[in-house]
């Protein structure tokens, strides 16, 4: 890609998420009308007549005698919130609520943060395993690296607020590839190469990938099968090109096409030719739907995808396998194209400007990522209730006869004494529950009376989660940092062996440590796996790691020796060295972590456009919200968890405001959360607070609303459409009443 061709990744990603949210709100509106119609046809004392064209406001006007306006508090401005989970999402919720409490008069928010795990696992997927309390004796089992790109702004604002500044003891550079591209090995098809090989003169199939394949199955010398492609692939010799860059290039055409379609649709709306459902708007939606229903594999193998979808590059099976093997986990490309593209964009590292000093874009936390959670827990006003598992959520549906009285959500909380292991269950009432657990962890609670809508139940059960394992070995010296390896500035190596990816630490390296000790013990993240590779390695991981893991240890040392053997140190010599220097190890399978059952959301084809809305919308009469990384479009990043929190709190206040538009505190909260972001200086670490603005992925207006036209968040105002957040809050109320109360009555 030339310099001018850099895509505005941020706008693309958010436009897509916003578009999906807006379109699916219209589907929800249709569902709500159908629910009302169905209930009224079967219940005599529900005299509601619909013409099937009602807007959200109109539908609410027609139904409010039976639903009220929802969001009824025991006292104006007084909220008690149950926050389930103390990962970054749960802890951030408490920080936002503290911040609002301090600033807004007339607001009295109380909350509990309820966490199933004990002190050692505060932070959820912010998890650092410490082999001892010695300074660098750790590795990050969960989140470990943070790119300073536009999408991650809120993450860095949070770091700043927590006092994590660049420098030792704070944020230190994370070296994603090895800095000089000279020392990290790669090992595929039993061929070992060292350093970045893809720019080498005379390079021909370095890993002999085409050996033994018939002409038809070979990765072709040149791809010229896409005559109309704008991508830089024409004539590219695939076995000479960095596979990671090739994947980006392969998706480039699709992303560019999507942006063009967004622009055309926007122009159509701005020219007054349509409100989003004109010719260009329809083209855009068809394109997005096709893309979302395709797997990455399908797209890469496709050529002509019809008039609504970008042509694919037409790769053969082996080419796609090769790209997947070198860049992601086995089976990863069976997931949705949309998910892969969104992930690709989250990883986007801004290009270095020519002639200017090299800037750092990737960071990690010195001391480990779990420090983020510990600093957050120190900052929040109320202590986390540890060893406390939410085992049931109850929306008290049977008490909702009078829609204008306060009905709480009730949580059953099982507290286990970590010493005696004795447990007791207590009930606690809250106005609203913000659940930050993974969807699998939520699914196993007793949700029978949780007030969940059918679509949300489906989403909780079916949304895809990726598998991931990490294994670190503590060696008696940092052998990889010294002769003959010299891998002393981070980086990673890749292989098709079971360990798949070996990550060299960016901490405890001679580059940044004044007293770096070449003879001291050191930790190497020797295997980071995803997808099927993680499932397979996970079968060797025991719950009492490192015990009962002889087979795993054998595989790790053997793979490390194969990967690192070179002309100066043979495989056999390395096996002796590694065996001698091995002190202990630690292995983690995120699918077998009982409080997770999955590493991060990774949606399958069709799930983003069909199911995402189901977890971002409120349930249980507007009193239950799904937050956390799955409930955002930034899956597998902590920024996703942060954005989901702002969305949920904002929507909840829209609901409160709908019920009580004259209570100023609610409007003030909405103003605070939606204020303009602080201007950022390019290249510097972001400044400002992480509590605003609203996430860009959340629409501000409904699909049928003209851009710039006046809107309201008060459903009593009849001549203006409701804002998107107010509409979603109102719809949740209507759907809850008619799906959970009246349909049940009619059944
Ligand atoms: C292997 C791996 C690598 C990653 N790498 C990065 C990275 O480099 N950079 C990045 O930004 N992000 C990364 N991520 C993603 C990031 O870690 C997550 O997006 C983020 O930490 C999720 O936070 P959360 O609050 O949504 O969920 P969680 O952290 O999962 O928090 C949910 C909490 O709920 C608790 N819980 C579960 N059930 C119950 C219950 N019944 N009652 C009470 N509590 C319960 C859990 O114990 C947990 O503490 C990575 C994740 C993984 C797994």
UniProtKB/TrEMBL annotation:
<dbReference type="Pfam" id="PF01593">
    <property type="entry name" value="Amino_oxidase"/>
</dbReference>
<dbReference type="InterPro" id="IPR036188">
    <property type="entry name" value="FAD/NAD-bd_sf"/>
</dbReference>
<feature type="compositionally biased region" description="Basic and acidic residues">
    <location>
        <begin position="697"/>
        <end position="706"/>
    </location>
</feature>
<protein>
    <recommendedName>
        <fullName>Amine oxidase domain-containing protein</fullName>
    </recommendedName>
</protein>
<feature type="domain" description="Amine oxidase">
    <location>
        <begin position="109"/>
        <end position="648"/>
    </location>
</feature>
<dbReference type="InterPro" id="IPR050281">
    <property type="entry name" value="Flavin_monoamine_oxidase"/>
</dbReference>
<feature type="region of interest" description="Disordered">
    <location>
        <begin position="677"/>
        <end position="719"/>
    </location>
</feature>
<dbReference type="InterPro" id="IPR002937">
    <property type="entry name" value="Amino_oxidase"/>
</dbReference>
